Amino acid sequence: MTDPKNARANTKNQLHPRNKHRQRYDFAALIASCPELKRFVANNQYGDASVDFFDPEAVRCLNKALLQHFYGVKGWTIPKHNLCPPIPGRVDYIHYLADLLAKSQGGSLPKGSSVCCLDVGVGANCVYPLVGASEYAWSFVGSDIEAASLQSAEGILALNPQLQSHISLRLQSNKKAIFNGVVQAEERFELSMCNPPFHRSAAEAQKGSQRKQSNLKANAKNKQRLNFGGQSNELWCPGGELSFIKNMVAESQQFSQQVLWFTSLVSKEANLRAIYQALKQAKVAQYHTVKMGQGNKVSRFVAWSFQSPEQQKQWLASL
Fold first, then answer.
1. Are 81 and 231 in contact (CB under 8 A)?
2. Which spans does this entry mark as compositional bias, Polar residues (predicted)?
3. What domains sit in the chain, N to C, each tagged with a CATH number?
4. pLDDT confidence of 82, banded at 50, 70, 90?
5. Residues 276/287, Cβ–Cβ less than 8 Å
6. Cα–Cα distance measured from residue 198 to residue 204, given in angstroms and rounded to the nearest whole number
7. Using only C-alpha atoms, what is the Rg of the chain?
8. CB burial class (10 A; 0-12, 13-18, 19+) of residue 19?
9. What value does the mean pLDDT take over residues 252-270?
């Protein structure tokens, strides 16, 4: 019979080998870095220290502690209505992007500010740039259609001057565009990344939250709220993630010489077939699907490039 404690400890083994969150949380160390976390920590049914993951305030404080302890990010916070991302999964995306570039330069991990990454939909949390700049010293441009989200991200950067030279933020004023209006003439990015809104409507997002909470046997009083937080542009858009990614693929053709690798998370595996068809129609040189494991959940992102393997090597050699 499997020891429940060992089973819980192993659920993080699917995370990327360089992910700092593969071990169970050391709450004593996290509290030392972020004392306010202490009031949210209590023993769970197994006698282990934990937080209530259905309490949005507790999850926000845990994120603040993780970012402070592991990445030196001070004072992280987001408005209550904005998406509160799971840090370990976000970190995985960054590490797998580093691997994607490393394949084109003999396995050497790309580090330094000459590596530029565009985060489409950076959000109020700014997590991808914060982690990427901390782990690899990459430069980031974070774009978003919500000025209020960018204001929140600016507030985080104001408290972290060591990261300000690595991260800039831009408003996407055209809600129907993705790269147009953000990527400037003659500007080049080694990577673009995106966590697209995956639902087609607010009603679908609500049903998804209720189903998730039911599966996790959430307390009945929580069943009417979105346990992952988030507002409209973060969680849903007309046509859902498939429509969003297909539009991204189509628009990426205009920037084929300015972005080495375009990437996007894909939450629904059933959408991959249609995405592959869109990529073939766009006549990309290469595309890959990278799987990421997070406990019992399997995530993935699709990456595509208009550059041949030899062109990729030349591009990265010029950094």
1. yes
2. 207-217
3. 79-317 (3.40.50.150)
4. confident
5. yes
6. 10
7. 19
8. buried
9. 97
